[in-house]
Amino acid sequence: MTGSARSVVALLFLLVGSAARADSAVTDGLLPNGNFEDGPDKSQLNGTVVTGRYAIPNWEISGFVEYIESGHREQDMILAVPEGARAVRLGNDATIRQRLSVTRRAYYSITFSAARTCAQKEKLNVSVTPEFGVLPIQTVYTSSGWDSYSWAFRAKHSVVWLSIHNPGEEEDPACGPLIDSIAIKNLYPPRRTKGNMLRNGDLEEGPYIFPDATWGVLVPPIFEDEHSPLPGWMIMSDTKVIKYVDSPHHRVPQGARAVELVAGRETALVQEVATVPGRSYRLSFSVGDAGNGCKDSLAVEAYAARATAKVPYESQGTGGHKRAQLDFAAVANLTRVVFQSFNYHTKPDGTLCGPLVDDISLVSVRKRAARL
């Protein structure tokens, strides 16, 4: 081989190697092969078990990972896939991860779909080094068994590893959750405005919602997520969530996004805001239903300082809303604004549902002087 030919071959190897090491460029939406439709070569499969660490394009795996096609039958259970025809299943101590190029110090949210299979107390570790969260997925919020979850992080580096890990220790190593449709979204946390002391009061800034997903996205409690996928707001709960819904699939009171309180009194939507003790304030908000068949006597409880308001809403399950307000006097320099569903509710198919909250604003009000 001549010197020039050797140089061409070396250049080709260099280009191929660089392509193999290239990081995924982050744009809002599915990650590269985020829906796992591009699968392993048959030579890297032992039945459904993936045998090669890099067998799934754009992903690196470790542990017991299976490549599942929709309709796959296992004992007396048929495994469905929410999007496309393929998904992965993470067995005991299994991990799937992808390296991403991000903007340092920027905020991002991850959205992915997951479904339980045979384990009863499944949970998932989601991490972008050095941050991680533990998401409990034992409660199912859809009739299909698939839910979309969100998790947020602030990038500490310009190149990061996104990992989803099943820490389970089941007797059957294959008894783990199915994972599909992993997406990312750049978050732009809104600031308070002159007309609203709350950040993201219209709830328009939040996690990525898949265009074909009719079930919304679950936002985890703050204990599992240092940076909320719903900027400005904290989800207070032990293991339950709120549901973030969109106008293409739900009846939203205002704009394109709203929050459905699906876990009764176990979960609260909370924001802390700076206030002046003794000053009067007015909290205004919309209460309604998502038009998703949640037909019941719904009610939202709102709290601020020492004031409380219970706002009832008779839902026919077809959409609609009404405005409500809570006037209060601040008693501290920091006031928590809190929303909870007054009770638990279910749709005819047995899945959890609840009242919508949207278009939330907080303003300072001046009390008129009493006439002599």
UniProtKB/TrEMBL annotation:
Residues 29-185, 197-361 form the DUF642 domain. It comes from the Eukaryota. Pfam families: DUF642. This is DUF642 domain-containing protein. The gene is LOC127771441. Residues 1-24 form the signal peptide. The keyword Secreted applies. It is found in: Secreted, Cell wall. Its main location: secreted. The keyword Iron-sulfur does not apply. Keywords: Cell wall, Glycoprotein, Secreted, Signal. It comes from Oryza glaberrima (African rice).
